[in-house]
Structure formats: structure tokens, C-alpha cells
């Protein structure tokens, strides 16, 4: 675990920055996908191979809206990792953006109660970790508040009023399996979390820094 200057603890995740090799292409994709208001983009050539250890998950109102977001992503150049289907918990699918970021779009509703929309109810940055309990305690010590916790399997932190994304933890291999990709990966996560005046890196290599101003 690497640690740098840490002058004040974060209380929630304030921003998510995705690092991409082609900034203009990424801007076009995320605008077409409809999530450009929830993430920031930054040009980077940092090497990364395989699973980057995280996914961004969209929760929406119903199956038709899931299908709409999946279709928009595919039309803009995304690859389908898991087609949208019904399950015990609802309906959802997984896509991979041209820059490599994996997105999961889901709803707890198994039937539509209204027409499809482009509204997003919640965005969660779900990071894959080796030890959920240890990483949860790491973040609690830095000011985050646990909203939900299921032993060593899953933990979710409460989001601040101005936070566009909620932070959650899941076992890395379980997350990869859920997304339909191999768990192996190396190099940069290609994502930076914002929410603290100082900078630090968590036990699984996810970097935090002061959030960029709009």
C-alpha cells in the first residue's frame, strides 16, 4: 500500500475520472451513451492489460430503459459482454466501452411500468478487492460511512449530496465472473477517484486525488 500526502479525509466519492488513450473519441462515446454527466475523462497512455478491477453500474427504472442504454452504447462502439436478460434479481446486461471500461446496466424491475427513458437512478463505482473487510475498514478510517455491508462479500458507502457516483466493494474474482470476463489483469486500473485534498492509494491500488474543478 502506497501512501502520499493525506491532509484531510474524504467523506464520500466526489468524482470518477476514467483515463483513456483517445480523449475526443471517448467524449463522443460517453455523450452518445448518455453518462457524460457522471464521469470525467483524462488522456493517459499508462499501460493496462486484462481486467481493470472495476465496473461502473447504472441502475435504471425498467427493462426497456436498460435496452435503450445498451443499444446506445453498442451504436457508439461498445462491445456486449453479457446480453441484457432477466434474472432472479431483475434485468440487466454488461457492455465494454471502446476505451476498455466495463459498464453494467440493470434494473430490479422485471417488467416495464412505463415507457423507456434516458434517466439514470443511480451510478455505482464497484471496485474489485482482495479483502472486502480490510478495504472497508481502510475507507472507514478515512471518513467514509458504510451504507450496506454483507460480511466479506460486499460493502457499499453512502454518497454525498453532490456526489454523482456511489462507491462499493466486491470480491475481485466474483466481480469479474459477474461481468463475464477473466479476473486476471495488470498495470493501471485506468480510473482515478476524487474526494480528498490529499492523495493516497488504497490496498488494491485504486488512486484517490483532489477532484478536478468543472
Short description:
The protein is built from 4 helices and 15 strands. It is an alpha/beta fold.
Structure write-up:
It is built from 4 helices and 15 strands. The chain has 214 residues and is an alpha/beta fold. Strand 1, helix 1 (23-33) and strand 2 (40-43) form a beta-alpha-beta unit.
How would the blueprint of this fold be written?
Layout: E1 15-20, H1 23-33, E2 40-43, E3 48-50, E4 54-59, H2 63-75, E5 79-86, E6 91-96, E7 102-107, E8 122-129, H3 132-140, E9 146-150, E10 154-157, E11 166-171, H4 172-179, E12 185-187, E13 191-194, E14 200-201, E15 207-209
Parallel strand pairs: 1-2, 4-7, 8-11, 13-15
Antiparallel strand pairs: 1-13, 3-12, 4-8, 5-6, 6-7, 9-10, 10-11, 14-15
Helix pairs in contact: 1-2
Number of discrete domains: 1
End-to-end distance: 30 Å
Overall mean pLDDT score? 92
What is the H level of CATH, i.e. the homologous superfamily?
2,3-Dihydroxybiphenyl 1,2-Dioxygenase, domain 1
CATH architecture: Roll
- Top CATH class: Alpha Beta
Uncertain stretches of 5 or more adjacent residues: 1-7
Approximate helicity band = 10-25%
Give the strand content. Answer: 25-35%
**Rg (CA only):** 17 Å
The major sheet is characterized as: 8 strands, mixed
CATH topology: 2,3-Dihydroxybiphenyl 1,2-Dioxygenase, domain 1
List how many beta strands DSSP finds: 15
Report strand order across the widest sheet: 5-6-7-4-8-11-10-9
Give the helix tally: 4
- Helix and strand element order: EHEEEHEEEEHEEEHEEEE
Assign an overall shape.
globular
The helix-and-strand class reads alpha/beta
Amino acid at each position: 500500500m502506497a501512501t502520499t500526502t493525506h491532509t484531510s479525509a474524504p467523506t464520500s466519492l466526489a468524482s470518477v475520472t476514467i483515463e483513456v488513450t483517445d480523449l475526443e473519441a471517448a467524449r463522443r462515446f460517453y455523450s452518445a451513451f448518455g453518462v457524460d454527466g457522471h464521469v470525467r475523462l483524462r488522456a493517459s497512455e499508462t499501460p493496462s492489460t486484462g481486467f481493470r478491477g472495476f465496473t461502473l453500474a447504472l441502475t435504471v427504472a425498467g427493462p426497456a430503459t436498460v435496452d435503450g442504454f445498451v443499444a446506445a452504447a453498442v451504436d457508439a462502439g461498445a462491445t456486449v459482454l453479457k446480453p441484457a436478460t432477466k434474472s432472479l434479481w431483475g434485468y440487466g446486461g454488461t457492455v465494454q466501452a471502446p476505451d476498455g471500461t466495463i459498464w453494467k446496466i440493470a434494473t430490479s424491475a422485471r417488467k416495464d411500468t412505463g415507457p423507456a427513458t434516458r434517466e439514470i437512478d443511480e451510478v455505482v463505482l464497484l471496485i474489485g478487492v482482495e479483502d472486502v473487510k480490510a478495504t472497508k475498514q481502510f475507507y472507514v478510517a478515512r471518513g467514509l460511512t458504510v451504507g450496506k455491508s454483507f460480511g466479506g462479500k460486499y460493502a457499499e458507502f453512502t454518497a454525498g449530496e453532490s456526489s454523482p457516483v456511489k462507491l462499493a466493494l466486491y470480491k475481485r474474482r466474483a466481480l469479474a465472473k459477474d461481468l463475464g470476463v477473466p479476473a486476471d489483469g495488470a498495470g493501471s486500473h485506468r480510473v482515478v477517484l476524487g474526494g480528498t485534498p490529499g492523495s493516497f492509494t488504497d490496498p488494491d491500488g485504486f488512486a484517490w486525488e483532489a477532484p478536478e474543478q468543472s
